[in-house]
Structures are given as structure tokens and as C-alpha cells.
């Protein structure tokens, strides 16, 4: 529970507008627009189950279908996005190329590498390194978007990473750590 609470606090801290946090605003946001939060929770649970069950069921077998699914999804969704009338988006050749690139390369490669690591890698090492993904993604986004993230974002990312580490350490076998150490 402490790790889950720390991670949840990090998510809330990172996503709430500065100076606007209150339990009333949070509950009102969930009430009026709760579907994205429910879908994010379902996706997180699905991804955790998929990551663990694919290792158990596939063993050390080759790559699964996730990278191919990501490529096909990118090729289908980008044209569909172009058809949507969105006032805030100014479509350009550069934006389309960036979307295609993001769908095909880092996203598909990330899923392919994650799947390979979960199937054939050292789960303890993979889990420990994955705790820093929120910090790395925030740093990369800040660099690419030429923005200076708020302190709350960095603290939120650190809380998510700390919460994940606390959850992981609460589940690890203390006898195994002594044998390695």
C-alpha cells in the first residue's frame, strides 16, 4: 500500500495544474471526466498481466505480435487522425512525419525491447531499470519540446519511481537478496 499510495500521489502531483490541487477538484474531475482514468487503470492492469503472462506462456520463444501490432496501429491511426477536425492542431508535413516516426520507431522498438526483456531477460534488472522510465520520459519530452518542466512534474515522476521501487521491494524475497549479496 505505501508504494501504491506514493505512485498515485506522484501521478496526481504531476498532472494537476499548479496551485489547483484539492480533493474536491480531483473528485469533480473524476466525476465529470472519469473515463480516461478508468481506461488508464485498465490499461495498466492489462499491461502488467500481459508482461508477466507472456513470459510464462511463451518462455524464451521469439518476439510476439506487439511490435507488429504497433506498426499497423500507427499506419492506420495517423491517416484517421488527419481526418479529424481539430482546431488546435496545425497539420504539416513535419507533424505527420513526426507522428509516423514516433509510431514506427521508438514506440514499436520500445514494445519489442520490453517484450524481449520480459521473456528472456533478468526480471529483477528489468524491473529496477523500469522504475526510472517516468523520469527519463519527462526529461526527453522537456528536451524535445524546449520546455522547462515544473518542479511538481519532477517530484511526481520521482514519487512514481519511488512507489514502484517500494512495491517491488515489498514483493522481493529477502532470502534471495541475502544469497546474491
Count of DSSP strands: 0
| Distance N to C terminus | 27 Å
Q: Given the C-alpha coordinates, what overall shape results?
A: globular
If you compute it from the alpha carbons, what radius of gyration comes out, rounded to the nearest whole angstrom? Answer: 19 Å
Number of helices: 9
Order of helices and strands: HHHHHHHHH
Provide the residue-averaged pLDDT.
77
Low-pLDDT stretches are none
Instruction: Indicate the percent of residues in helices.
Output: over 70%
- Strand-pairing-aware structural class: mainly alpha
Question: What fraction of residues sit in β-strands?
Answer: under 5%
Largest sheet: none
Textual characterization of the structure:
Helix 3 packs across helix 5 (93-120), helix 4 (66-83) packs antiparallel against helix 5 (93-120) and helix 7 runs antiparallel to helix 8. This protein is an all-alpha fold. The longest helix has 28 residues, at 93-120. It is globular, with a radius of gyration of 19 Å. The protein has nine helices and no strands. The protein has helices spanning 2-15, 23-33, 35-58, 66-83, 93-120, 123-130, 133-145, 151-171, 174-180. The model has no long low-confidence stretch (mean pLDDT 77).
Secondary structure blueprint with pairings:
Layout: H1 2-15, H2 23-33, H3 35-58, H4 66-83, H5 93-120, H6 123-130, H7 133-145, H8 151-171, H9 174-180
Helix pairs in contact: 1-8, 3-5, 4-5, 7-8
State the gist of this model.
Helices cover 80% and strands 0% of the residues.
Structural features:
single chain; 181 residues; mainly alpha; 0% strand
Amino acid at each position: 500500500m505505501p508504494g501504491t499510495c506514493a505512485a498515485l500521489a506522484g501521478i496526481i502531483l504531476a498532472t494537476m495544474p499548479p496551485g489547483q490541487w484539492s480533493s474536491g477538484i480531483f473528485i469533480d474531475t473524476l466525476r465529470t471526466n472519469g473515463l480516461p482514468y478508468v481506461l488508464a487503470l485498465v490499461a495498466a492492469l492489462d499491461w502488467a498481466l500481459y508482461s508477466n503472462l507472456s513470459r510464462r506462456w511463451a518462455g524464451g520463444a521469439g518476439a510476439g505480435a506487439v511490435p507488429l501490432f504497433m506498426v499497423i496501429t500507427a499506419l492506420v491511426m495517423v491517416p484517421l487522425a488527419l481526418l479529424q477536425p481539430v482546431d488546435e492542431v496545425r497539420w504539416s508535413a513535419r507533424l505527420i512525419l513526426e507522428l509516423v516516426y514516433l509510431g514506427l520507431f521508438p514506440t514499436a522498438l520500445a514494445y519489442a525491447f520490453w517484450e524481449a526483456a520480459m521473456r528472456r531477460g533478468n526480471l529483477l534488472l528489468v524491473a529496477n531499470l523500469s522504475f526510472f522510465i517516468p523520469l527519463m520520459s519527462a526529461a526527453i519530452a522537456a528536451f524535445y519540446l524546449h520546455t522547462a518542466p515544473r518542479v511538481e512534474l519532477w517530484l511526481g515522476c520521482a514519487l512514481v519511481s519511488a512507489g514502484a521501487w517500494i512495491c517491488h521491494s515489498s514483493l522481493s524475497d529477502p532470502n534471495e537478496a541475502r544469497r546474491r549479496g
